[in-house]
Amino acid sequence: MPYVVAVTAVRAWVNSLDTLVGSGRPLALGAFRQHPRSPGHGAYALLSRIGRAAGDLVAEDTIDSPRISASIFAGTDEAAEIAAVAYANAVDALRGAPAVMGDARCLVADDLAGPLLVDNHDSDREQYHYVVDASFYVL
Known about the structure:
Layout: H1 6-16, E1 30-32, E2 44-52, E3 66-74, H2 77-92, E4 99-101, E5 104-119, E6 128-138
């Protein structure tokens, strides 16, 4: 089974959603692979691949099933929660609508977990942090 550069693909998809990313939107700064140096104002997502879905959704061996974790950061709890819920809803909408994600194509997203509040108060980063995990089935 060929693997897909999944974090790059999901990041491209998130950053292309003008209902989610951009000034005045819930995830204003977009998605990153690592913390931005100067996050400024607004929420952002930090994406990472945390494994693979437990079972295969389809029989074809050409489909990768990366599990992607999105850590959503913002300066207030409300902004972080709003961004995390908006991201979760966008991922959930992939259940019935395949999407192009950079050079990949996502057939479906499944096994959504979160938004889950993470206590980040002992960090020098943004104080408010939510996590949303999901399995993406991409080729």
